[in-house]
Write a structure and sequence with these properties.
There is one protein chain. The protein is elongated. With 347 residues, the protein is an alpha+beta fold. It folds into two domains: 189 residues, D-amino Acid Aminotransferase, Chain A, domain 1 (2-Layer Sandwich); 129 residues, Nucleic acid-binding proteins (OB fold (Dihydrolipoamide Acetyltransferase, E2P)), CATH 2.40.50. 20% of the residues lie in helices and 31% in strands. It is built from seven helices and 19 strands. The strands form five sheets. Strands 12, 13, 14, 15, 16 and 19 form a six-stranded antiparallel β-sheet that branches. Strands 4-3-5-8-9 form a five-stranded mixed β-sheet.
């Protein structure tokens, strides 16, 4: 966390204001809505020639995004702090997969990727203005004009630096939500009369959740029991092989024992004929890597939000069993068709 930058009115240790998930967009007055971008949340600190990009966890991102550092260093304004999102555009969409490739590779690879797939910074809040004045205590009705004034002082359109749009119309926000996908990950809502509440879940976020029909290719027992704790989900790829794409653990505890009895008779290797579940990872929080393979006979419909590297980025929610659905109908094509419909609405 050490830095050679001069001290600023907004310190490098500042934590981002976070959002809590809600089901619907509020329609009462007093809200500002913004697109929720599908990228890396970041704070940018500029102090004369010094630029520091920090992740929401405080990690220094300068090494991984040198082209963004150079862009900010070239701006004619010497002092400011911005809150925003690092994204990498692919056509009209953004690629979270490509963004992830930036983390932890060798310096030579970072340099190549910075040239081949440069990142864009989308700014949506101003925490310190060009005069070096902290805006953390100021309401959004003051911070947004300060952000727009700062962009005006940059002197024209800057490549790979964007000002996020906003609306105070719930109807417009609803339209954004319906069109989310690709570059947009949903809608964020902020209170107009509140300051920037560092580290608090003082904003709201609403996502358009999508559904997919998946084959149940296996399951895991709940830790320390013989009850089903999670179902392992699969989709058939273009080669006709069943790839593991994620899991759902939203199974009521009361149903775990009965579900285990139902699945026992269907246990049969290999479960997945393509990509199979791996061992524990840094994301698994100590979950067991052991799983039971099943005959590809059962289909469930799950709710998900995003896909990364042909996998559900987060755990999914079990919506219903689909005895009416043939397992072979559960292909990746359904995800591509839904993505295409979103893209067409945005064009």
């Amino acid at each position: 966390m050490a830095s050679k930058c001069p001290k600023l009115a907004v310190p490098l240790t500042t934590k981002t204001m976070e959002a809590k998930s809600v089901a619907t967009i509020p329609h009462q007055p007093g809200w500002q809505f913004e697109p929720k971008w599908d990228g890396f949340r970041s704070l940018v600190f500029r102090a004369e020639v010094c630029v520091e990009i920090r992740s929401r966890s405080g990690t220094d991102l300068n090494r991984y995004f040198p082209e963004v550092v150079e862009m900010f260093q070239a701006l004619p304004v010497g002092r400011f702090v911005l809150d925003g999102e690092l994204v990498i555009a692919e056509g009209d969409n953004s690629s979270f997969d490509t963004l992830q490739l930036r983390l932890h590779p060798a310096a030579t690879r970072v340099k190549r990727l910075a040239t081949e797939t440069p990142a864009t910074f989308v700014a949506f809040d101003c925490l310190m203005d060009a005069q070096g004045r902290s805006l953390l205590a100021e309401p959004l009705t003051e911070r947004r004009p300060a952000l727009e004034a700062l962009f005006e002082s940059f002197g024209g359109r800057i490549k790979r630096l964007r000002l996020s749009p906003y609306t105070r119309s719930a109807k417009t926000a609803e339209r954004w939500l319906q069109e989310s996908g690709g570059a947009l990950d949903g809608v964020v809502g902020k209170r107009l009369n509140e300051g920037y509440r560092c580290g608090e879940r003082a904003m709201i976020k609403v996502k358009k959740l999508r559904t997919a029909d998946c084959v149940v290719g296996g399951f895991r027992y709940r830790t320390g029991t013989r009850d089903v704790g999670s179902l392992l989900l699969g989709l058939y790829n273009c080669e006709g092989k069943l790839d593991h794409v994620g899991f759902t653990s939203s199974i009521p505890r009361a149903d775990g024992a009965a579900l285990a009895r139902k699945l026992q008779s269907r246990i049969q290797p290999p479960g997945f004929t393509g990509k199979a579940p791996g061992g524990p990872s840094r994301w698994s929080n100590g979950r067991s890597s052991e799983w039971e393979p099943l005959k590809p006979e059962l289909v469930v419909e799950v709710i998900y939000d995003q896909i990364t590297n042909d996998r559900f980025r987060h755990g999914t929610t079990l919506l219903r069993w689909r005895p009416d659905k043939k397992p072979r109908e559960c292909t990746f094509e359904q995800l591509k068709q839904r993505a295409a419909r979103v893209s067409q609405r945005r064009s």
